[in-house]
Amino acid sequence: MQKWISRSSHFKQTALAIGAAAVGLVLMFGFRHFQGNGDMLAGFLLGVLLLVIGAAGLAVAGTQTVAVDPAYRCIVVEDRTLLGAKTREIAFTEIRDISIGYQGKKSNFVQIYYLVLKLTSGSEYPLFAPGRFSPGASSRSTVEGWRQRLQQYMAT
After folding, report:
1. How far apart are CA 3 and CA 136, in angstroms?
2. Helices (H) and strands (E) in the chain, counts
3. Among 6, 16, 33, 53, which has the minimal tally of Cβ within 10 Å of its Cβ?
4. pLDDT digits 0-9 by tens, 123-143
5. How far is CA 84 from CA 56, 63, 80, 141, in A?
6. pTM of the predicted protein model
7. 108: Cα within 13 Å, side-chain hemisphere
């Protein structure tokens, strides 16, 4: 079997962070004269919060690369952000079960699916983590295909 490599979308993460920071700046500017007015103070503080969230989002926005290698019988997850890079290697023998995780609400049309690796240590590890905007993560059938593909890789 061939090595399976998937990369998340850095662009979508960055765009979301810039959008939050921009809205925060607009709110801060629009409500900057808040002396004695509680509503204007709340608008200003919301702007500060969105600016902080946007700045933090820019710092942690990056690319996640998931490489499933059936020859070496392991999964290598590499996260690259402005703050540096982290690599996690998970051997197939460490995986006890694979399920599908879900984040979001159907009512606001934001649904993200991802794989949850249940490890022999008792911990869980999210693969194709939410917030990384992996291609196909908004489709449950696509993520179910990922789960079946990974199970096939582990069975060989």
Report:
1. 19
2. 3, 7
3. 33
4. 999 988 777 777 788 888 999
5. 14, 11, 6, 33
6. 0.73
7. 5
